[in-house]
Specification:
6-stranded mixed sheet; 21% helix; 31% strand; elongated; binds adenosine monophosphate; binds magnesium ion
């Protein structure tokens, strides 16, 4: 079989995920403002993995998403072994002075000591060496004096002291890692230890990023009076990269329906999902929402969240499109809160919750009921400090921040020292 034939066989065996349903972004009728939790619950219920499966060697597995549970091929440790450098014997050792004849030779990690240690005798043994026949206990070398072919130490010492049991960490046949996990450096150590050389992983989710707006121009170019630089595209591409997906730059289009249609067609042909920014509301120049509506698979999600105007969620030629607000602050918050878990589901990672913790507020704030709020914030001296301005056009605040403070939907009066929920960027995996 040539390598090509092999690839074809593998491709044929790959499970092909079913397409997403056209109504996957439909909201219950009559809903006005959708609470954040309801929106998330809908995404969780409707989206499923769209990526196929491939097998990669451990050297290529970092950051990839396990497609199946991985079963340990071998126990860790495979055999009982010494946890310290010292002297091995059959334990336990009683109270008081212990003296034992010392055998010739030694057991070392990777060594070939095959003898048996007779009852009442001791053998020099090094960390990691498999326990020879007749040894189940090791006395630490620092606690021993060696003289005239004998060792001496003070007991007592429990049986199996300083020894590791075979399989005390992982037993062969057990699940070493569960499907949907994104492989970490530590996971590579575990997989290697339990005898795994290659793993079944999801293909990497390709996510396109498209900016929309007549006012936008390329960073670094000369900008006309009415123009602003496209700040969202570099940010969104970078966020996707940090989330472990394959970002695809779909460029920038003006507020022109035909150009946008062509860009979405082009994007849908090469990616698994698309993030657009701008043009997602219901205004005259909001062509993203207009086109998705035209395609018959669009929903305006009026989510009760601040910052963030409506999200336009839809399918374009079967590919999910997340129409983010144009405002960079809202675009980033909506990406982290809504697109991140949605993309994780598509990528086969299952549902991901941000890792948050409650810390005292270094601020006072009153908030009205109705919308969940996210403040750009950072932690200093164990307290949550918000950015001085809540203006959603303040990109410097995004850059200043090291995470978000999440304030619940209801009415609230936060006083200094009250616990607030802080989600560091790392809690979003970025
Ligand atoms: P829109 O959602 O298209 O109404 O845009 C909302 C605000 O975000 C407007 O002030 C836009 O100029 C701005 N905006 C839209 N896209 C971007 C972008 N890619 N980079 C920076 N600002 C943007
Ligand atoms: Mg616009």
């Amino acid at each position: 079989m040539s390598p090509d034939d092999k690839n074809e066989t593998r491709a044929a065996a790959m499970p092909v995920p079913p397409p997403l349903r056209n109504d996957c972004f439909a909201l219950p009728a009559g809903v006005e403002w959708t609470p954040v939790d309801d929106a998330l619950a809908l995404l969780r219920e409707r989206l499923h993995p769209v990526c196929g499966v491939e097998t990669v060697p451990l050297s290529d597995a970092l950051g990839r998403v396990l497609a199946e549970d991985v079963i340990a091929a071998r126990s860790n440790p495979p055999r009982a072994n010494a946890a310290v450098d010292g002297y091995g014997f059959a334990g336990p050792a009683g109270e008081g002075a212990q003296v034992m004849p010392l055998l010739d030779g030694r057991a070392a990690a990777g060594g070939d000591f095959t003898g048996t240690v007779p009852e009442g005798h001791a053998l020099r043994i090094l960390t990691g060496a498999a326990l020879p026949e007749g040894v189940d206990t090791v006395v630490l070398e620092e606690d021993v004096t060696v003289q005239a072919g004998h060792i001496a130490f003070h007991g007592p010492l429990k049986q199996r002291a300083n020894a590791r049991r075979a399989g005390e960490d992982v037993v062969a046949g057990d699940v070493a890692l569960h499907a949907a996990r994104r492989i970490t450096p530590a996971d590579l150590a575990l997989l290697a230890a339990v005898g795994i050389g290659e793993v079944p992983v999801r293909t990497v989710l390709r996510v396109g990023v498209l900016s929309t707006g007549d006012e936008l121009t390329e960073p670094g170019s000369d900008a006309g009076a009415g123009q602003i630089y496209d700040a969202n595209r570099p940010m969104l591409l970078a966020l996707l990269e940090r989330m472990g997906h394959a970002p695809v730059d779909l460029g920038r289009v003006g507020d022109d329906r035909d150009a946008l249609r062509a860009a979405l067609d082009d994007g849908a042909a090469q990616v698994d999902a698309i993030l657009t920014s701008g043009g997602a509301s219901a205004g005259d120049e909001d062509h993203v929402s207009a086109l998705l509506t035209e395609a018959g698979a669009m929903q305006q999600w009026r989510i009760a969240v601040k910052p963030g105007r409506p999200l336009a969620l839809g399918l374009w030629q079967g590919k999910p499109v997340f129409g983010l607000p144009g405002n960079p602050v809202a675009a980033m918050v909506c990406t982290l809160i809504f697109a991140r878990p949605a993309l994780a589901l598509l990528a086969g990672m299952g549902w991901v919750e941000p890792q948050a913790f409650d810390i005292p507020a270094a601020f006072e704030k009153r908030k009205k009921p109705g919308r969940r709020e996210y403040l750009r914030a950072r932690m200093r001296d164990g307290q949550a400090e918000p950015f001085a301005s809540e203006g959603s056009g303040r990109i410097s605040g995004l850059s200043w921040a090291e995470g978000l403070v999440e304030l619940p939907d209801g009415e609230l009066h936060v006083r200094r020292g009250d616990p607030v929920r802080f989600i560091p960027w790392g809690g979003f995996g970025i």
